Amino acid sequence: MSSAKPHRKLPIDGFVIAIVVTAVIGSVLPASGPAIPVVTHGVTVLIFILFFLYGVRLEPRETLDGLKNWKLQGAILASTFVVFPLIGLAMRGLVPWAIPSTLYVGMLWICLVPSTVQSSINFTSIAHGNVAGAIVAATTSNLLGTFLTPLLALFLMSTSGGLKIQPSSFLDVIIQLLLPFVLGQLSRRWTADFVHKHHKQLKYVDQGSIILVVYSAFSEGMHEHMWSLVSPSSMAVLTLICLALLFFMLWLTWAGAGWLSFGRDDRIAIQFCGTKKSLATGLPMATVLFAGQPVGLIVLPLMIFHLAQLIACGVLAGRYARQWEAMP
After folding, report:
1. Which bin fits 33, alpha (ψ -120 to 50), beta or left (φ > 0)?
2. Which spans are transmembrane here (predicted)?
3. Which pLDDT tens digit goes with each residue over 189-210?
């Protein structure tokens, strides 16, 4: 599949701009009065639908078949769920001299969420990498992340992050995330064809859900005086830390894959899948898991990281594509 003609359009589109604009709107015009419960219940319903669709789209049989390449899949999953969390724990040393503890929680959250699906596959395809391996890795990461990310958050964020996660939050995770995901998997016999046939239209359901989650998080953050807790200098330092984390992981996954004797196609898949962090999964999860906490501050670093990873990986994918085209 790595020799197939790639889809050249990079996934840096209006959706990213819409997320940034929505965050600004939520900060300037937060929900108030009777609009608050409407937004809150709307987020709950859309998150349920979102994870139901995730369950329908994932093909467990193909994922299990792809896991036979255990070395490739193990390297990607280790990057996502072992190396990233360890780096997140190490960044605790940045508090308080570089960033306040509230923003460190958001940096740690970046390190716990699963990989992206669509952009990981798209970038790997553009770069002429191992697309089949990327498809399996991205879907497996999200499948495992549904279970692993809340567990990692429980053990790491309540100890190192200083964030108190209520036991009731895990019941919310089960009801709002795991239940619709399982229902989606069980319903595939009846729903998979419909979802596949209407994937372009349903894309707007996904994106609309994320946009409403962003609005809700930043709207709630304004009621909690979120921006009074983040100075311009803290924002600048936070952005630099996000960039440093991204570029370190881009280097480590490429170099580490070389040390492990992976070929070019596999190294590209490891780099693009092992460094991505999913905004589409991380935002809804944070909304459910950290109910009652400053969700806007927690997801702010993830939004910065997400935008940076799209730009950086877009540049890398273009470079790899030119190198591939120049090969004899």
Report:
1. left
2. 12-29, 35-54, 74-91, 97-117, 129-157, 235-254, 295-317
3. 999 999 989 988 887 888 788 7
